[in-house]
């Protein structure tokens, strides 16, 4: 449905001025909204990039990279860094395509609006001036007519057959005032007709066109915002797909088998410990020589190590530089472990 501000809002100059001013304020507010949105995207990208860098391995350790869960996490961090790049691109597009363009357009719109309302004020001032001229000629005509009427009453009272010079002057002034009033009235009617049927419709139509362009530009900016967001979605989707693939690549059984391959020594578990009888030393019926022989044997056996012996560095099956922390004990003469 079409409308024309010039014919339908011919008497709403002040309200149109307020409305268009509010429209420009909204345009500036929307521009600020997009600017802050871009700042948020940049801040988010910076934090995501910092997070990815914080948890990314400092160096490629062979013992970590052999596990699927570690490789999956490293791949996730890499995709997270790619997501940060996409958010930075989005922020750059918002600033370049929307914020800068709307800022420039707002300044142009303010200049155009000022020009239109200046034309409207000049037209309003002209019609007001014409109205004042009409009122002035009307009051002068009214005054001259009253003075001419009083002069005629005075002449009638003194019953003069001929008009006096004063009465003639009054009537002549009233007649001239009447002509001036008619001229002013015709001029005002012409000015008023031109004002409301020519000037105001043209000026208000320009203001209406300006307002419609402003609204259209806001719609274009909103579409550009959505399109900029949609533009990064395919890459974001690929990053998320890569994260899903990394998660699905984790193999618990393979990782636990890898632990065996890394830490398995290759040795068999120790066998049962044999019983050693020391009760013969306690028999009182043995000979002293036997006793001494047994004591000699005991001293020799006391130097026998427990099966879980401390091994030297060269004896460790995995060839590491650390020492094995195993229990160390000997068998004393009394048969107790030390």
From TrEMBL:
Span list, region Disordered: 146-178
Keyword Coiled coil attributed = yes
**Per the database record, which ranges form the F-BAR domain?**
3-255
Matching entries from InterPro entries are given as: AH/BAR_dom_sf, F_BAR_dom, FCH_dom
Question: Pfam families from the xrefs?
Answer: FCH
MF terms in GO? lipid binding
Q: Does the keyword Coiled coil apply?
A: yes
Which terms are listed as keywords in the entry?
A: Coiled coil, Lipid-binding
From what superkingdom does this record's organism come? Eukaryota
Question: PANTHER family annotated for this entry?
Answer: FCH AND DOUBLE SH3 DOMAINS PROTEIN, FORMIN-BINDING PROTEIN 1 ISOFORM X1
Its recorded name reads Formin binding protein 1a
Q: Which organism is it from?
A: Neolamprologus brichardi
